[in-house]
Amino acid sequence: MPIRLLSDEVASQIAAGEVVERPASVVKELLENSLDAGAKNIFISIDEAGKKLIEVADDGFGIAADELNLAAARHATSKLVRSDDLFQILTLGFRGEALASIGSVSHMTMTSRVESTKEGARIKVEGGIASKVEKVGAPVGTTVRVENLFYNVPARLKFLKTDVTERRAIDALVTRYALAYPNVRFKVTDGKQVTLQTAGDGDQRAILASLYGVDVAKQMLEVMANDDGLKISGFISPTSLTRSNRREITFFINGRWVQETSLNSALLQAYHTLLMVGRYPLTALFIEMPAEDVDVNVHPTKAEVRFRSQDKIFSFVQRSVRKALLAYTPVPTVSPQLWGSRYVPPSEPREVGLDWTIAHSSVDSDQSSVNNEEETTNDESRITNYESRPLSTNIPLLRLIGQIGATYIIAEGPDGLYLIDQHAAHERVLFEKLMAQRENKNIPSQSLLSPEVVTLPPQSAKILSEQLSALNQFGFEVEEFGTNTFQIRAMPILFSGGDPASALKSLVEDFEEDESPLQNEIESKIAGRVCKRLAVKGGQVLTTEEQKSLLNDLEVCQNPRTCPHGRPTMIHLSVDMLEKQFGRKGAR
After folding, report:
1. Across all residues in the chain, what is the average pLDDT?
2. CATH of domain 348-575
3. Is the domain defined by 8-201 classed in CATH 3.30.565.10?
4. Which helix (H) or strand (E) holds 418?
């Protein structure tokens, strides 16, 4: 086959494939252009997860009418002149490819006006072909309207993920930039619904509150450090506030959102020994450094960077975060009088009763023990096989001996000793009770004396709002209560005494980017997640009555040997094994 030059159309679509991977890529490029233009107000509208419409309007400097046509051309930019400028990048955009790439795979309309003129100008680009510039009335600033994305690249359209996933990607992107630019007012609408709105008053903690709720915002720890030309600021979560994935870890370098492995490694190294395996902090950190010390011209998306001195950056981030953690969370001391004693914190009430509905944890609900909730996100898939698994052999009647480490229950059976993980066992008990009530279509609920209000990040709120009907069938009464906010008015009696807000958040926390949230085996997934969060935690001292009640409930379960996620509830030490270990039988 002979060598030939590619046509402009094909070359543009290839370039677009590098820059415009999905609707969120379009939002990112247009958003960064608005920030480079000095915008103080940025309004983003999307429809059908951005496939049908993406519109970004700002009040920045605008584009002059005689430059509008050039702005839509490839390799046209106002931010670079010489090759040396590549090593002094102070703007978010600089390659001159974004608008041309977007216009080559969509119907794009740009309307702009600069302050020195009384009228604006408009240009339309369809499939890379630009129309003539026309005069129109317009406010100062620029509005870019992108319609029918990938209409001429059907293969790319087919590879997009579900609308829920694509909307989550857009919301997550704008959320990050809202934190990085607190002096800019952001507003995102999806159809007629406002999914994100910030005040633009410079208060980052207020933005955290609007995104994650007031409780989370109050807990976030502030980081502030300077060292040898490097500056870091932002927020990290305490060890008691974690997530099951890394999606809430955010780094900005000189105002640019980056995804750099070394920065993530430095952050996690700072948390080393402070978090249990599989848990990750919430982080929004903003690093400032000399522009010549970082290379942002690594990939067309500009999300990857290279540092001139990577070890220096790694050490700076690790030390700064660790220092903040230790400053806010000093190492606790233990009184010698407590050694060998059974200590129950007096400030934490516990619910006692043979029905074993729920009990409050005597330590922090997420970080009480390294043995607590070690299941990974992949374990969630095991719940879907709940009905198809063969029934395990029922455990024998057990005689309670006691509790060890405030986490494990010791019991004697006719064939030896049993060590029961109280959290996994209670998960199994709650799960089977809830599923039995669901099967009988009789899940009694109890109204809360004071409704709980929960605020979620925009991407999580969308997942939950689409599954409210399924959740309400489990005895919860949850309704939308404003932008990304929900009100819990009732919960199942089975979970009375538990934290309904924690249960609600657990439903959307662990889903990965490419998973269809709460679609496959909705009922068993909801039940498993709620029971996992509301089950008694490791590290909680239980009364003798509570221990006996748990054993009795576990004995009548259909699958008593594993929790709903497949983790074992007990370990069996047979009499024969004990005799061998003590040299009473077999090898000595």
Report:
1. 78
2. 3.30.1540.20
3. yes
4. strand 416-421
